[in-house]
Design brief:
The complex is a heterodimer. By secondary structure, chain A is α/β, with parallel strands linked by helices. In chain A, about 35% of the residues lie in helices and about 25% in strands. Chain A has 11 helices and 14 strands. Chain B is mostly helical. Classes of the chains: A alpha/beta, B mainly alpha.
């Protein structure tokens, strides 16, 4: 699918000398959900702010729907909706007024029907005459989304949309994101909740220290970098790993009641058959076996804290 | 020009004016009425005519200017500072609009508010004193230009200010003294010669003088000079705002 957003060697150095972006390049396909994962201070918000025109890039270029975001800022920005991380709403205005304002600000003619549709989708229609200050935190976040959608953007940036919200609301947000994708909106969300990326993203980008370590299909990433674990539960606990099993690099878990074997699920030989044979040879009796995949969180932690080796590994396959 | 965006900002700013009607409107009208009661009626009755004009009427142009200047600055500075303070300026910065459109919306609304207040003060004044306007067109031109130029200045202050204290700093420490010492309550010909010369460095003198000329046909400085001064000040403010948006000073990192 064609790229609706192309970022090339984007760099941002703040006045104090801090390098927030160190040459980020990225293509985002129309209609996809990309999750940008990264710890606090990784450069996620700077990246979004630079694309949207809130921050000026030191060098590099951004093309939105084929329009340069500086020389053709009107066409480029018209395609973008931004939901900021902080709840930044004027407390005394009414929901309907502030959403209508956002549409007008983007130069779109008034459309009460469209604004009503957006508010209904976000379960805000009943609250349309409420003042922002009277809304709950979750409702305020919905208002921010409604404002960003009021001018019918083709790309929606969600900067930490569920930071500090409860689990129920987080799941509501994910549902909203899925519905927006179904409507054809391209979504780029930043998060440091791995669960969020795992639940809704098509692709995952990992950013840290102003560098994009990788961007990859979520499933591929998990398959490529994910490890599987086999837990061999025993009928009788062991105190130490028997000599016959020493070659398998096992861990004793559950107080000796189980042995944990970590393997590469993509490898030609996983070593499971040999392990199970050796377990039997060692005179241990199996009670049960379980396998589990490593989560995106494990991969993320490995990448971000893994130093140069992890970066090299990521770079080898980065999109 | 993205006129829809300009109108949107303008309407939102005007809505704030109506939301805070007491603070925005009644307060300046009340304080100006008090000036008329104290300076015009109580003290003014003991002051002889100034340049052939009854003192109560003489101070009207100066009082209107005082209100219009302070209101323009406070409306425009608050208008742009508030989104900066609460953070929703992101919406303006990420919208497909240029600096002229942003300024037209915010400054247009601030100037409209102060123009409205100035007009109401003039009407209030006519209840206290007999007012005649010899040059109505010039009067309107001076009033509109003053509203516009000081709203532009207020916009700059709003962008510059890093907190609410700084927002008040320039109006309190610079503008109010300049307006009070700018011949609002006296003719500069009443001052000793040295002070007359010093006063000419006060830009407000040119505004009050020109505005007073529109009413009474008498001015402390030539009217054309007054017009040039206000025109030059307006252009200077536009230049500073253009530079602010070009460099992103205090608004765009």
């Amino acid at each position: 699918m064609a790229a609706i957003l192309s970022i090339r060697d984007l760099r941002k150095t703040y006045d104090g000398g801090f390098q927030a972006l160190k040459g980020v390049s990225l293509d985002i396909a129309e209609g996809e959900i990309l999750a940008l994962l990264g710890p606090n201070g990784a450069g996620k918000t700077t990246l979004i702010s630079t694309i949207c025109g809130i921050t000026t890039a030191t060098s590099g270029s951004v093309s939105v729907g084929g329009f340069d975001n500086v020389s053709q800022f009107r066409q480029a920005r018209a395609l973008i909706g931004l939901v900021p991380q902080e709840i930044t709403l004027e407390p005394f205005t009414k929901v309907l007024d502030t959403v209508t304002f956002s549409r007008g600000l983007f130069g779109k003619p008034a459309s009460p029907a469209l604004v009503e549709d957006v508010l209904r989708k976000l379960s805000l229609w009943e609250k349309r005459d409420s003042r922002i200050m009277d809304l709950s935190g979750g409702m305020k976040r919905r208002v921010l989304i409604a404002k960003a959608l009021a001018h019918e953007p083709r790309i929606l940036f969600l900067d930490e949309p569920t930071a500090g919200v409860d689990v129920e609301l987080r799941k509501d947000m994910w549902e909203i994101v899925r519905e927006l994708k179904a409507d054809g909106v391209t979504i780029i969300l930043t998060t440091h909740y791995i669960e969020e990326a795992e639940a809704i993203a098509d692709r995952v980008g990992v950013i840290t220290g102003g560098e994009l370590l990788l961007v990859e299909e979520k499933e591929q990433l998990m398959a490529r970098m994910g490890q599987k674990q086999l837990e061999v539960q025993l009928t009788a606990p062991v105190e130490a790993i028997p000599e016959a099993l020493s070659q398998h690099n096992l861990q004793i878990v559950n107080g000796g009641g189980a042995l944990l074997y970590t393997y590469d699920a993509r490898a030609e030989r996983t070593g499971i058959t040999t392990l199970l044979n050796d377990v039997a040879q060692a005179g241990l009796v199996l009670a049960d076996v379980q396998t589990r995949e490593s989560s995106l969180e494990d991969i993320f932690v490995g990448l971000v804290s893994g130093g140069p080796a992890a970066k090299d590994a990521a770079a080898g396959d980065a999109a | 020009m993205n006129w829809t965006a300009v109108a949107t900002i303008y309407k939102a700013e005007m809505a704030r004016f109506w939301r805070t009607f007491l603070q925005s409107f009644i307060s300046p009208v009340l304080s100006t009425s008090l000036y008329f009661v104290v300076f015009g009626s109580a003290i003014g009755s003991r002051i002889q005519e100034v340049d052939g004009v009854e003192y109560g009427a003489f101070i009207v142009p100066g009082l209107v200017m005082l209100s219009v200047i302070t209101q323009s600055i406070s409306n425009a500075s608050f208008g742009i500072y508030f989104p900066k303070f609460i953070g929703n300026i992101y919406e303006i910065l990420s919208a497909p609009i240029n600096f002229l459109e942003v300024v037209a919306g915010f400054v247009g609304a601030a100037a409209t508010k102060s123009l409205f207040i100035g007009t109401v003060i003039l009407c209030t004044a006519s209840l206290f004193v007999d007012l005649s306007v010899q040059h109505p067109l010039a009067m309107v031109a001076f009033l509109v230009l003053t509203c516009l130029s000081f709203s532009l200045m207020g916009f700059i202050i709003g962008i510059w200010a890093g907190n609410f204290e700084q927002l008040q700093l320039v109006p309190l420490l610079v503008v109010t003294p300049l307006v009070f010492l700018g011949g609002s309550f006296y003719s500069i010909s009443m001052l000793p010669p040295v002070w007359q010369t010093i006063t000419l460095f006060n830009p407000v003198v040119y505004l009050v003088s020109g505005f007073r000329w529109a009413f009474f046909g008498q001015a402390d400085v030539p009217v054309l000079l007054s017009l040039c001064a206000i025109g030059g000040f307006t252009l200077a403010c536009v230049g500073v705002i253009w530079w602010i948006f070009k460099t992103g000073w205090r608004i765009r990192a």
